[in-house]
Specification:
single chain; about 70 residues; about 5% strand
Amino acid sequence: MGILVILGLGVGALPLLFSLAPELMGHTVLGMPLAWGGLGFGVYPALLFLGWFYLRRAERHERSIAELVER
């Protein structure tokens, strides 16, 4: 649940940010709109990290369950 909350707040905040501050939509960074840069360089690395973190936690839980079953 914690990862879903972090993901929802992080990704859900971007549309809210761009609707509350529409002047950000006009800015470009390296010839790319700021919104695209935020998605490409902010959201996707965060998604990769959250996926990695979730996988590590799931593997840890799976190992602990396997240890209980083996006893």
